Amino acid sequence: MRHHLSGRQLSRNSSHRHALMRNLSVSLLRHETIRTTLPKAKELRRVVEPLITLAKSDGEANRRVAFSRLRDAEVVEKLFADLGPRFRARPGGYTRILRMLPRPGDSAPMALMQLVEGAAPVAAGEPAPDKKKRPRRGKTAAKAKGKAKAESAEAAAGEAPKKRTRKKKAAAA
Fold first, then answer.
1. 38-55 and 14-31 are packed helices; what angle lies between their axes, rounded to 10 degrees?
2. Which of 23, 54, 112, 170 has the most CB atoms around its CB within 10 Å?
3. Residues 120, 35 contacting (CB under 8 angstroms)
4. What angle do CA 120, 121, 122 make, to 5 degrees?
5. Residue 157 and residue 144: Cα distance in Å, rounded?
6. Roughly how many angstroms between the first and final C-alpha of the chain, as a whole number?
7. Is the distance from CB of 32 to CB of 120 less than 8 angstroms?
8. Rounded CA gap, 69 and 72, in Å?
9. Counting beta carbons within 10 angstroms of the beta carbon of residue 55, is it exposed (0 to 12), middle (13 to 18) or buried (19 or more)?
10. How far apart (Å, rounded) are the C-alpha atoms in residues 55 and 69?
11. How many C-beta atoms lie closer than 10 Å to residue 32's C-beta?
């Protein structure tokens, strides 16, 4: 039974999992946007947000706690000098997770994780499109594409699109 055991295992032992979260945290705080799998991003949120809350009140003890969790002096300095003051008025929710297209190799669900305010431009990829707006495949896609081209050509010529009835379709065939 898993009573009171929280967090994702991510198919790793505890030391590997802690090292993974430390490395992802440092990367997110340094670059302010990273691309990773969705479960890792959701777990990373539980690590990074308390660090940013800690950085909102600068002090020697808080810096030591942050350094013990991150082990990178440059990122700790950025955390307390830049990120802490930036999020001082915000009560929480410092990160955003945008779902992306699945990874081509193994179809793993991917995510773009960013800091909310003043995040760097998206350079790692584009967020996943809505399922309703996905283009059709196969013969229907070619028909839809042909209809769209015909309608745009008629619109460019200044004519109203012609409606074809069943009788005309049968006669044309």
1. 70
2. 112
3. no
4. 115
5. 20
6. 68
7. yes
8. 9
9. buried
10. 13
11. 19
From first to last of its 173 residues, the chain has per-residue pLDDT tens of: 989 999 999 999 999 999 999 999 999 999 999 999 999 999 999 999 999 999 999 999 999 999 999 999 999 999 999 999 999 999 999 999 999 999 999 999 999 999 998 644 544 455 555 555 555 566 666 666 666 666 666 666 665 555 556 665 556 65
User: Would the CA dihedral through 25, 117, 80, 59 be positive or negative?
Assistant: negative
Residue 55 near residue 70 (C-beta atoms within 8 A): no
Q: 114: buried, middle or exposed (CB in 10 Å: 19+, 13-18, 0-12)?
A: buried
Cα–Cα distance measured from residue 172 to residue 166, given in angstroms and rounded to the nearest whole number:
10
**Do residues 93 and 116 lie in contact, with contact meaning Cβ atoms separated by under 8 Å?**
yes
Write out the DSSP string of 14-76. HHHHHHHHHHHHHHHHHHSEEEEEHHHHHHHHHHHHHHHHHHTS--HHHHHHHHHHH--HHHH
